[in-house]
Specification:
45% helix, rod-shaped, alpha+beta, 2 domains, 1 helix, four-stranded antiparallel beta sheet
């Protein structure tokens, strides 16, 4: 078998495997880096905090205020 053909097939196999793993574990992988999420419920609003931002929602679920945390 030609060496260039073998390298191409190897590249396609590794690329398709990486794509499939990204589809399966993509959303879980991103939430892993966002850190733990803390939610507090109050009477008329809800506060959600993670490693990146602090979000305040009203009782209908609409975002009122988003505060990005800097490094």
């Amino acid at each position: 078998m030609n060496k260039n053909r073998r390298n191409l097939l190897k590249f396609l196999l590794i690329g398709s495997g990486t794509l499939m793993l990204g589809k399966v574990f993509g959303s879980r992988f991103l939430t892993f880096f966002s850190g733990p999420r803390v939610e507090n419920e109050f009477g008329n609003f809800r506060v959600t905090e993670d490693r990146k931002e602090l979000i305040i929602y009203d009782k209908t679920g609409e975002e009122i205020l988003i505060i990005d945390k800097g490094k």
